[in-house]
Design goal:
The chain is α+β, with helices and mostly antiparallel strands. It folds into 2 domains: 38 residues; 148 residues, Protein Transport Mog1p, Chain A (3-Layer(aba) Sandwich), CATH 3.40.1000.10. 38% of the residues lie in helices and 35% in strands. The chain contains 4 helices and 8 strands, in the order αβαβββαββββα. Strands 1-2-3-4-8-7-6-5 form an 8-stranded antiparallel β-sheet, with helices on both faces. It starts with a helix and ends with a helix. The relative contact order is 0.13.
Amino acid sequence: MSRNTKIALLVIGALAVICLGLCGVGALLLPRVTENIVSQKPDDMKRVGAEIADYTLPPGYAEVMGLDMFVYKMVALAPKNQRGDGMIFMLMSANAGGASQQQMERQMQQSFQQQFGRSGSQMQVIGQEAVTIRGQPVTLTIAENDASPKLRQALGTFEGKNGLVIVMAMGTAEKWNDALLREFLSSIQ
């Protein structure tokens, strides 16, 4: 075996040991890091929601997920019964400097489309509604997909406690509860 071959084998072996070590450290640390980012602990979810805006949970609803990742915070609210027959509400704040309301709404719609468009369905805007959130006029964009069952989403942005907040409501068009949506939106302070 030549000298260059021995050196190459030593370098490759050393890199393999370093890579294995990094993978081991990553496997040990990654669960701890992600545990602090996405939480289903009631106190963590309430804290994240309170950092976004003050709101009153609709009757029978609870925080079901909280995300606190650097500049993004998100809380999801859903019926406690978890049968999937109610609307889901999400509040997401993003302290991404320079992002406009239109850009954030477009990014959220694209994300929603990517997630639900995999089945071949497309979201189509069916209207807009004017609401008031935190004393501010907000335009909600209402969209539905072309699949069965039809999913409906309402999306808007407002100024929250620490910057721009996107509010989204999702549910089946058949069981859409406009009164519940308006009650929740009016509770946001």
